[in-house]
Amino acid sequence: MQFGPVPTESAEGCILAHSLQLAGGRIPKGTILTPDHIEAIEKGGIENVTVCRLEPGDVLEDDAASAVAQALDTPHTRQSEATTGRVNIYSTENGLFIADRTTVDSLNRIDPGITLATIADHSAVTAGAMVATVKIIPLAVASSKVEAAAQLVRGSTAFSFRPYRPHRVVLIATALPTLKPSVMDRTARLLAQRLEPSGSSVHREERVAHDTGEVAAALVDVTASGEEQPDLIVIFGASAVADPDDVIPAAIRASGGRVEQVGMPVDPGNLLVLGAIGDIPVIGAPGCARSPKENGFDWILNRILAGERPRSFDITGMGVGGLLMEIPERPRPRDAVQATEGEAVTVGALLLAAGQARRMGEGGPHKLLASFGGVPLVRRSAETLLAAGLRPVVAVTGHRHEKIEATLAGVDVKTVFNPDYASGMASSLVTGLSSHGVSSCEGVLVMLADMPAVSVTHISRMVEAFRNAGGQAVVRAVHDGKRGNPIILPHATFEAVRKLQGDVGARSIVENCGLPTIDIEIGRAAHIDVDTPEAVVAAGGILGD
């Protein structure tokens, strides 16, 4: 390939190396110049243009990227169409991404213009997450180099993907007088949230004294032969492990099991214990696993959920990258999750209906059950989302959830109960976004269930703007420039949202995600909610129970 400036008059058939902005429009980089292009460039007064001239055996960037990407052919992934020399690769299931550094490095050393970049080895990903990208740097490369790269990945595995499989999990929690039951309750809920992406669940929980004999007896009981045997046992100790002969490792051995490793070079997560009873893996969780923030427990748990059986050698090799720094959450907008050609950008919805409605008065009527046009508000909100074409719609319930869920009966909405609703909005966002259907969408519209003035038209305009941006922008409703609700969050922000805590929304994530924000004016509807009986009546509602 020959690269450089040439007289405009002789550039026909060449590839434009740099975009040109002309009075009649823009000619993008990579365009093969036609006589019409040449005429437009000359009219613009440009005498020379920088171009590429193909030589025999050269392959255009998009064709080269497609050839390398197609040779990868990794199960449980999908590929975007090639554009500007790039093919992005996305997971189609929740699971564990496995990279082969040797193969990836070898491909990248064939030619500087042919590159393959992946996320980190053994990264946990959700369906729709970007896991790798093939990028051709120049506008064309030699076909011999393309074929060498394709042949390399055909004969070996540059990366693979291991979908999670559902596990029946037993939780054993030990107690001391100083450990509050509320802490143990929250620990169980957090474990359930960690298991949800794999379709796993805690099917049994045992709480015993922090004593070797008590824990050993519980282990023997839960592993007794029968159809109810667990696939995994997780032990949360009331006190941190201080020695290989401390309560949890000693109990594993006393129950007839083996201890694989005590301690790991991942911080937070140093005090993890890994063992097994027969074929059943046992994790002694470190204290940091009581927090939703990533720690060494997540690394081991995800490997087991994906079907791996980590050993001492694996754990002792986790030190490089094992220092998990406490840094502000900043999702990476890696081209988000783009729809393939011919597909619409998928948008689901979260309907937040878990609040305690304290301003309605103690024991007073529930605002979401107030009637608007003869329809309970929560049902009206759900039907608005459905009428706007959003799928799936997930309603997160909490306070008086039985009544709310009964009111939604017969509507094509999935309801998810948030047992931690009293802690604030963050827990409802996390609960809703962990739903399988929503987590695989390119974007999710988050709507408060107590906003009766938000219409199908408002939502449709927001969704249209999101799709026009290719799913790579935050879209929020505003009135007179003041932000309101609803909001559409792109897939690139999902991981950061899942780590929120307390009575906060996604404002900090929106401000720090690095993606553009599109404001859609929907009038006063962006700010009208009904938090008090007076507000319900003023908005045209009739109070119910």
From TrEMBL:
Q: What is the lineage of its organism?
A: Bacteria, Pseudomonadati, Pseudomonadota, Alphaproteobacteria, Hyphomicrobiales
Q: Which UniProt keywords apply?
A: Magnesium, Transferase
The record's Pfam families line, in alphabetical order, gives: MoCF_biosynth (PF00994), NTP_transf_3 (PF12804)
Domain annotation MoaB/Mog: ranges: 170-306
Provide a Gene Ontology MF annotation, just one. nucleotidyltransferase activity
**Which N-terminal stretch is annotated as signal sequence?**
none
Top-rank lineage group of the source organism: Bacteria
Please give the organism: Pseudorhizobium banfieldiae
Q: What is this protein called?
A: L-seryl-tRNA(Ser) selenium transferase protein
